[in-house]
Amino acid sequence: MTTHTKPGLRPANPNFSSGPCAKRPGWSVEALRNAALGRSHRAKIGKTKLEQAIELTREILQVPAGYRIGIVPASDTGAVEMALWSLLGERGVDMVAWESFGSGWVTDVVKQLKLADVRKIEAGYGELPDLTKIDFDRDVVFTWNGTTSGVRVPNGDFIPADRKGLTVCDATSAAFAQRLD
Fold first, then answer.
1. What distance in Å separates the CA atoms of residue 168 and residue 67, rounded to the nearest whole number?
2. 58 and 111 in contact (C-beta within 8 Å)?
3. Which of 22-26, 40-44, 66-70, 118-122 has the weakest average pLDDT?
């Protein structure tokens, strides 16, 4: 377990969560004026809006030009689920969890995918597990920023560049909270 000092700075609006959140300051229903409500994503307007969202995502998150961005149903949870079901199983996997999303993915891999070689590296809610226990010769799944607990890995220094296994990481909320290098 890694212990970090409590932050000295609190957010101006603490109403952030993994579920419905407080609207941004100044939000009104007028923000939905150009929404394509009731239209398929396959319609011209839907395709245009998806293209704009992808390009805005690239710009805001500074995603390199050679990287592809996809939008899938169920937000980042859907994307991670697709990765788990599509990519895991070739080798053993280390499932690293310390909050609700990571714990849910441990359950999915153990009880639904029923992979034979799964190591669970877990910590109590609000604490980080010992990241030195992760074996990057295996596949690894973790959540960078535990949105529900507020606990995050401080940086990616624990991930070796010469790893042999896949590294599946939900970094969505982290990408909006800190620089990821």
1. 16
2. no
3. 22-26
Closest CA to 3 of 162, 166, 123: 123
SS3 139: strand
Q: Which residue has the tokens 């991670």?
A: 80
Q: Is the pLDDT of residue 97 over 90?
A: yes
Q: Categorize the per-residue pLDDT at 114 as very low, low, confident or very high, splitting at 50, 70 and 90.
A: very high
CA 131, 136, 139, 143 torsion-angle sign? positive
Model confidence at 9: pLDDT above 80: no
**Pairing relationship of beta strands 145-146 and 151-152 according to DSSP bridges:** antiparallel
- In the structure encoding, which two tokens stand for residue 105, read together? 């993915």
Residue 56's identity, in one-letter code, is L
Question: Which residues on neighbouring strands pair with residue 140, listed in sequence order?
Answer: 94, 167
Q: Are 36 and 49 in contact (CB under 8 A)?
A: yes
Distance between terminal CA atoms of the chain? 24
For residue 115, the one-letter residue type is: L
* The token pair that represents 35 in the structure block: 């929404």
